[in-house]
Amino acid sequence: xxxxLVRHHLPHTGAAPRVDPWARARDWAExxxxxxxxxxxxxxxxxxxGSSTRLLxxxxxxxxxxxxxxxxxAAVTGVDARAPERLALARERLLPEAWGTRARAGTRLVxxxxxxxxxxxxxxxxxxxAFEPIGCVAGDSEGLGESLAAATPLVGRGVPVVLVGWGPxxxxxxxxxxxxxxxxxxxxxxxxxxxxxxxxxxEEVAQRAGLRxxxxxxxxxxxxxxxxxxxxxxxxxxxxxxxAVAATDQAQVDKELREALHPHRRRDGTxxxxxxxxxxxxxxx
Length: 285
What we know:
Blueprint: H1 21-32, H2 37-46, E1 54-58, H3 64-71, E2 75-79, H4 84-94, E3 108-110, E4 127-134, H5 144-151, E5 160-166, H6 175-185, H7 201-208, E6 212-220, E7 223-225, H8 228-237, H9 242-247, H10 250-261, E8 271-273, E9 276-283
Parallel strand pairs: 1-2, 1-4, 2-3, 4-5
Antiparallel strand pairs: 5-9, 6-9, 7-8
Helix pairs in contact: 1-8, 2-3, 6-10, 8-10
């Protein structure tokens, strides 16, 4: 997730909800980001990520997916211009010089876009990942095509590019919870509401970016939380509910979220929501 789980900069009118960006980033890194670990592992295993891999991670967030690739021996570069707090956490994980720990060799983190990640003294990237899932909010693929276009000059022909999307709503228990945010925010925005993932979402993005689809897969990524409070914090950290908070208020969103989570609460108090995510491997031309 990072890699991010849902886009946290969706356009909406009205005042932005007041949040502590550092607390939000910590909640993301400590609670929510790990939900997509099975997806990262499946992709890295399929593409045999290792010491010969030079990976460029788009919208890398707090860097968990990069860390996992680096642990396999890959040289990783992450770019993200949207969330400086998350990028700061990625630096703590991957470039911890300030803590007296040696940084991972071949690691770069860039506060900017793909065009800022070029390195004239290094070989081109041979893997690009865009791990932030699309397909749960109308328009959530906007901007991804631009990022892919900016990354293309940094790679050679036939390089794999990984795109990720939500699975069909009937296989994603979290869909019912995401609809709560869309319902509350609807009076303020008509183009950013929840919508079901479509089968060809990823292929359409790849086609617009001039990429050639070359395989796909589905991975189970259940969302599990210690309790309802933990689930609310994790889901709010995605930013998907910010328009709902702006349209109503934080108390109303918290209340609606808790009610939507109730069917997913188990007898021991934990919250469990099975989900399936899809990934597409596309190749540069």
